[in-house]
Design goal:
With 437 residues, the protein is mostly helical. Helix content is 58%, strand content 5%. The chain has 23 helices and nine strands. The strands form four sheets. The protein has a three-stranded antiparallel β-sheet. The chain has a two-stranded antiparallel sheet with strand order 1-6. A hairpin with a 2-residue loop joins strand 2 (12-13) and strand 3. Helix 9 (212-221) packs antiparallel against helix 10.
């Protein structure tokens, strides 16, 4: 296969690279056995499978991670997934690169040896021993070493996740959270950054992160002026509460939680942080103790207005979480009045029905139903003005939840009482109601 090289900037075109030097064109031919059969690129870390075929490690690892159990070239079923480094081919490729250095070809560095399960077990033991002595510096060095491993390859990442390192890091976080937050900020930050790509954790790991000390530390870290750290903290809280809402019982007794979450929503240019913050608030308000203790404070901090503002141009995930927060806050009289009072509430709720997702539709119908059951009817009249009747009628024909259908039916019946308040309301549409339910 022919490759051409071009200076100062190389470009790839149909598997070829061009070199232009004083109007001359030099064609470089890369030997076929230097190219990976999967990517067709020059191999950087050639490894050989049990079938005798050599591939680039990154390409074959991705092939195996995708669930394939055969050799891509021979189509034989792999008896094992061992990848033996092909040092001879690698040295030949490096020599070829050196020979063609004048044409802009860079030498491929010697790849690092992949880590093994034994390496992970050993570093876990070292971290636990250092933690028992309170040696934060030693723990930080080991955590940074794990981070280096993870950056080397996806295979290392998978091995780290599969060998219980998440639990050890969670235990480490709890241990140093019990001490000074400020003194161990760097270590705690590095642990959280690693944990965010190890989710989901097991029950034991979540119990460590869900302890009072750990949650108190995460709340404090949310106030640190570090956007990446805040993102790691709120993602960890989201992981904990979405898998086990009993952690809310501990979280609600920690000072500053509502303020920290609302500040994150107000953070500029951080969509994932905003969505995760709404998710944490939703899970808090979904529990009885969380709603009773923290909903008044969230109302004071303007969660209703922030949720409605987020809905205006939100994507699916953010819309669902913002609507979920509004639905849960509407369980109280003060919350319903606050939501209904806002000029955007009813129009936005009607607009989002059947436009975002089934979950978002459930939240919208639930809120409109709460307004109709506990209000003076003004919300229903406003909903009729913006087309709620047609959408609710359509809902009865589609495959939505049974509870949502019941609420939609009740609202359609109630709307009949207010039809005379609308100047241009076509009561003829109601002839379809009996057929719908």
């Amino acid at each position: 296969m022919a490759f051409f090289w071009k200076r100062p900037r190389a470009s790839r075109l149909a598997g070829k690279k061009l070199l232009s030097k004083q109007s001359s064109r030099i064609e470089l031919t890369i030997p076929t056995h230097f190219r990976c059969p999967i990517s067709l690129d020059l191999m950087k870390d050639p490894v050989t499978l049990s079938t005798g075929i050599t591939y680039d490690r990154e390409s074959i690892e991705k092939w195996i991670r995708d669930g394939n159990q055969t050799c891509p070239v021979t189509n034989q079923v792999l008896t094992n997934f061992d990848q033996i480094p092909n040092h001879m081919i690698r040295r030949m490729i490096q020599d070829w690169c050196v020979e063609n250095r004048a044409h802009g070809v860079e030498r491929i560095p010697t790849p690092r040896t992949p880590i093994t399960s034994y390496d992970i077990m050993e570093i876990c033991s070292k971290m636990m021993a250092a933690a028992s002595k309170g040696d934060a510096k030693r723990c930080l060095d080991l955590v940074e070493k794990i981070n280096v491993w993870a950056k080397e390859s996806e295979q290392n990442k998978s091995l780290i996740k599969d060998n219980g390192l998440g639990y050890v890091l969670a235990a480490l976080f709890e241990a140093f959270s019990s001490l000074s937050f400020e003194k161990h900020e760097d270590l705690l930050k590095e642990i959280l950054l690693l944990l965010t790509w190890m989710f989901p954790l097991g029950v034991e790991g979540r119990s460590k992160l869900g302890s009072t000390q750990s949650l108190r530390c995460m709340t404090w870290l949310l106030s640190v002026d570090d956007l990446l750290l805040k993102k790691s903290c709120v993602l960890t809280l989201k992981e904990l509460l979405s898998t086990d809402q009993t952690h809310v019982n501990t979280l609600v007794d920690i000072d500053g939680v509502p303020e920290a979450l609302i500040n994150l929503i107000n953070a500029p240019d951080s969509h994932s942080i905003i969505k995760s913050s709404f998710s944490v608030i939703y899970h808090i308000l979904s529990t009885q103790i969380g709603h009773n203790k923290l909903s008044p404070r969230f109302l004071e901090l303007g969660v209703v207005e922030l949720s409605l503002e987020a809905l205006v141009e939100a994507d699916k995930g953010l819309s669902e979480m913002a609507l979920g927060v509004l639905d849960r806050i509407s369980d109280s009289k003060e919350g319903r009045e606050r939501v209904q009072k806002h000029a955007l509430s009813v129009p936005l709720l009607v607009k989002k029905i059947l436009r975002v997702s089934s979950l978002a539709t459930d939240f919208c119908v639930s809120m409109l139903w709460k307004f109709s059951k506990h209000g003076d009817g003004s919300a229903l009249v406003e909903a009729l003005h913006v087309g709620a009747f047609q959408k609710l009628l359509l809902m009865l024909q589609v495959n939505c939840g049974e509870e949502t259908k019941v609420k939609a039916t009740e609202m359609l019946k109630l709307m009949n009482q207010y039809k005379n308040k609308l100047e241009c309301f076509d009561s003829g549409h109601y002839k379809y109601l009996r057929k719908s339910y």
